[in-house]
Amino acid sequence: MANTHTVSFKLNGKPVDVTVESRELLIHTLRERLAHTGPHIGCETSHCGACTVDLDGMSVKACTVLTVQCDGADMVTIEGLEQGGVLHALQQAFHEEHGLQCGYCTPGMITRAYRLLQENPDPSEQEIRYGLAGNLCRCTGYQNIVKAVQSAAKKLAAAKQATPAQPAAAEGAAEAAAEAAAETAAAQPVTA
Ligand code: FES
Ligand code: FES
What we know:
The chain is of the alpha+beta class.
Protein backbone atom coordinates (compact mmCIF):
# COMPACT_ATOMS: atom_id res chain seq x y z
CA MET A 1 0.00 0.00 0.00
CA ALA A 2 1.61 3.22 -1.11
CA ASN A 3 1.92 6.13 1.25
CA THR A 4 1.07 4.29 4.45
CA HIS A 5 1.95 5.02 8.05
CA THR A 6 1.82 3.05 11.26
CA VAL A 7 0.01 5.06 13.90
CA SER A 8 0.00 4.19 17.61
CA PHE A 9 -2.51 5.45 20.13
CA LYS A 10 -4.48 4.38 23.18
CA LEU A 11 -8.04 3.32 22.42
CA ASN A 12 -10.32 2.89 25.43
CA GLY A 13 -7.28 2.26 27.61
CA LYS A 14 -5.59 -0.27 25.31
CA PRO A 15 -2.57 0.39 23.08
CA VAL A 16 -3.30 0.11 19.37
CA ASP A 17 -0.99 0.08 16.34
CA VAL A 18 -2.65 0.47 12.98
CA THR A 19 -1.32 0.98 9.46
CA VAL A 20 -3.29 3.48 7.42
CA GLU A 21 -3.09 5.54 4.28
CA SER A 22 -2.13 9.19 4.68
CA ARG A 23 -5.61 10.36 3.74
CA GLU A 24 -7.58 7.94 5.92
CA LEU A 25 -10.15 9.48 8.25
CA LEU A 26 -10.28 8.39 11.87
CA ILE A 27 -13.91 7.28 11.61
CA HIS A 28 -13.00 4.79 8.89
CA THR A 29 -10.00 3.47 10.85
CA LEU A 30 -12.14 2.97 13.94
CA ARG A 31 -15.01 1.27 12.15
CA GLU A 32 -13.28 -0.66 9.38
CA ARG A 33 -9.88 -1.56 10.82
CA LEU A 34 -10.45 -1.60 14.58
CA ALA A 35 -14.06 -2.92 14.70
CA HIS A 36 -15.24 0.00 16.83
CA THR A 37 -18.58 0.65 15.18
CA GLY A 38 -20.11 2.66 18.02
CA PRO A 39 -19.09 5.96 16.44
CA HIS A 40 -21.44 6.34 13.45
CA ILE A 41 -21.13 8.02 10.07
CA GLY A 42 -23.90 10.51 9.41
CA CYS A 43 -22.91 13.46 7.27
CA GLU A 44 -19.13 13.02 6.90
CA THR A 45 -18.94 16.81 6.73
CA SER A 46 -18.54 17.68 10.43
CA HIS A 47 -22.16 18.73 10.93
CA CYS A 48 -24.09 15.93 12.65
CA GLY A 49 -21.80 14.70 15.46
CA ALA A 50 -22.72 11.03 15.01
CA CYS A 51 -19.00 10.24 14.78
CA THR A 52 -17.98 12.07 17.99
CA VAL A 53 -15.10 10.55 19.96
CA ASP A 54 -13.03 11.86 22.87
CA LEU A 55 -9.47 12.67 21.81
CA ASP A 56 -6.97 13.82 24.44
CA GLY A 57 -9.76 15.26 26.58
CA MET A 58 -11.66 16.98 23.76
CA SER A 59 -14.75 16.03 21.82
CA VAL A 60 -13.85 15.68 18.15
CA LYS A 61 -15.69 14.60 15.05
CA ALA A 62 -13.88 11.55 13.76
CA CYS A 63 -15.00 12.25 10.18
CA THR A 64 -12.88 15.37 10.21
CA VAL A 65 -9.66 14.01 11.75
CA LEU A 66 -6.98 12.15 9.84
CA THR A 67 -5.83 9.01 11.61
CA VAL A 68 -2.21 10.03 11.18
CA GLN A 69 -2.97 13.03 13.40
CA CYS A 70 -3.76 10.68 16.29
CA ASP A 71 -0.29 9.23 16.85
CA GLY A 72 0.33 9.16 20.62
CA ALA A 73 -3.25 10.17 21.44
CA ASP A 74 -5.50 8.91 24.21
CA MET A 75 -8.89 8.14 22.69
CA VAL A 76 -12.23 7.13 24.18
CA THR A 77 -15.21 5.96 22.15
CA ILE A 78 -18.68 4.95 23.31
CA GLU A 79 -17.33 1.40 23.69
CA GLY A 80 -15.00 2.63 26.46
CA LEU A 81 -17.62 4.18 28.73
CA GLU A 82 -19.08 0.95 30.12
CA GLN A 83 -16.72 -0.65 32.63
CA GLY A 84 -16.80 -4.34 33.52
CA GLY A 85 -20.36 -4.75 32.32
CA VAL A 86 -21.57 -1.66 34.21
CA LEU A 87 -23.02 1.12 32.12
CA HIS A 88 -21.74 4.66 32.56
CA ALA A 89 -24.21 6.93 34.39
CA LEU A 90 -24.91 8.70 31.09
CA GLN A 91 -25.69 5.47 29.26
CA GLN A 92 -28.02 4.45 32.07
CA ALA A 93 -29.69 7.87 32.12
CA PHE A 94 -30.32 7.87 28.35
CA HIS A 95 -32.04 4.53 28.81
CA GLU A 96 -34.12 5.61 31.82
CA GLU A 97 -35.12 9.01 30.39
CA HIS A 98 -35.81 7.68 26.88
CA GLY A 99 -33.14 9.96 25.43
CA LEU A 100 -33.23 8.18 22.10
CA GLN A 101 -35.52 6.82 19.44
CA CYS A 102 -33.70 5.40 16.42
CA GLY A 103 -30.41 5.60 18.35
CA TYR A 104 -28.29 6.67 15.42
CA CYS A 105 -27.11 9.88 17.09
CA THR A 106 -26.83 8.32 20.55
CA PRO A 107 -23.19 7.12 20.70
CA GLY A 108 -21.97 10.53 19.57
CA MET A 109 -24.43 12.34 21.83
CA ILE A 110 -23.35 10.37 24.92
CA THR A 111 -19.66 10.65 24.11
CA ARG A 112 -20.04 14.43 23.80
CA ALA A 113 -22.08 14.58 27.03
CA TYR A 114 -19.33 12.60 28.78
CA ARG A 115 -16.84 15.37 28.03
CA LEU A 116 -19.41 18.12 28.70
CA LEU A 117 -19.94 16.86 32.27
CA GLN A 118 -16.22 16.89 32.86
CA GLU A 119 -15.98 20.45 31.54
CA ASN A 120 -19.01 21.49 33.56
CA PRO A 121 -20.29 18.98 36.16
CA ASP A 122 -23.40 21.05 36.97
CA PRO A 123 -24.65 22.49 33.68
CA SER A 124 -27.88 24.45 33.34
CA GLU A 125 -30.41 23.36 30.71
CA GLN A 126 -29.15 26.13 28.46
CA GLU A 127 -25.55 25.02 28.94
CA ILE A 128 -26.47 21.43 28.09
CA ARG A 129 -28.25 22.54 24.92
CA TYR A 130 -25.30 24.72 23.95
CA GLY A 131 -22.80 22.00 24.86
CA LEU A 132 -24.58 19.48 22.64
CA ALA A 133 -25.22 21.91 19.79
CA GLY A 134 -22.75 20.10 17.54
CA ASN A 135 -24.71 16.85 17.82
CA LEU A 136 -27.90 16.62 15.79
CA CYS A 137 -30.84 14.34 16.52
CA ARG A 138 -33.64 13.94 13.99
CA CYS A 139 -35.96 11.96 16.26
CA THR A 140 -36.27 13.04 19.86
CA GLY A 141 -36.77 16.80 19.84
CA TYR A 142 -33.89 16.89 22.35
CA GLN A 143 -36.07 17.22 25.48
CA ASN A 144 -35.33 13.75 26.84
CA ILE A 145 -31.68 14.02 25.87
CA VAL A 146 -31.40 17.12 28.07
CA LYS A 147 -33.25 15.31 30.89
CA ALA A 148 -30.86 12.38 30.62
CA VAL A 149 -27.79 14.60 30.90
CA GLN A 150 -29.34 16.41 33.90
CA SER A 151 -30.11 13.07 35.56
CA ALA A 152 -26.58 11.73 35.02
CA ALA A 153 -25.06 14.99 36.31
CA LYS A 154 -27.10 14.69 39.52
CA LYS A 155 -26.11 11.07 40.09
CA LEU A 156 -22.43 11.77 39.48
CA ALA A 157 -22.54 14.79 41.83
CA ALA A 158 -24.32 12.82 44.57
CA ALA A 159 -21.75 10.05 44.36
CA LYS A 160 -18.94 12.56 44.54
CA GLN A 161 -20.47 14.19 47.62
CA ALA A 162 -20.81 10.81 49.29
CA THR A 163 -17.07 10.25 48.94
CA PRO A 164 -15.13 11.45 52.06
CA ALA A 165 -12.61 14.31 51.64
CA GLN A 166 -9.22 13.11 50.42
CA PRO A 167 -5.74 14.61 50.77
CA ALA A 168 -4.72 16.69 47.74
CA ALA A 169 -2.37 13.98 46.47
CA ALA A 170 -5.22 11.50 46.33
CA GLU A 171 -7.73 13.79 44.59
CA GLY A 172 -7.48 11.98 41.27
CA ALA A 173 -8.14 8.64 42.90
CA ALA A 174 -11.09 10.11 44.82
CA GLU A 175 -12.65 11.43 41.62
CA ALA A 176 -12.24 8.06 39.95
CA ALA A 177 -13.79 6.35 42.97
CA ALA A 178 -16.74 8.79 42.95
CA GLU A 179 -17.38 8.16 39.29
CA ALA A 180 -17.15 4.40 39.77
CA ALA A 181 -19.60 4.65 42.68
CA ALA A 182 -22.02 6.62 40.52
CA GLU A 183 -21.78 4.11 37.76
CA THR A 184 -22.38 1.25 40.16
CA ALA A 185 -25.35 3.04 41.75
CA ALA A 186 -26.83 3.64 38.33
CA ALA A 187 -26.21 0.15 37.01
CA GLN A 188 -29.19 -1.72 35.60
CA PRO A 189 -29.21 -4.26 32.79
CA VAL A 190 -30.26 -2.73 29.48
CA THR A 191 -31.94 -4.84 26.88
CA ALA A 192 -32.99 -2.15 24.40
FE1 FES B 1 -18.96 13.26 11.44
FE2 FES B 1 -21.47 13.85 10.79
S1 FES B 1 -20.38 12.00 10.40
S2 FES B 1 -20.07 15.03 11.93
FE1 FES C 1 -32.69 9.13 16.02
FE2 FES C 1 -31.30 10.85 17.52
S1 FES C 1 -32.49 9.16 18.19
S2 FES C 1 -31.31 10.66 15.37
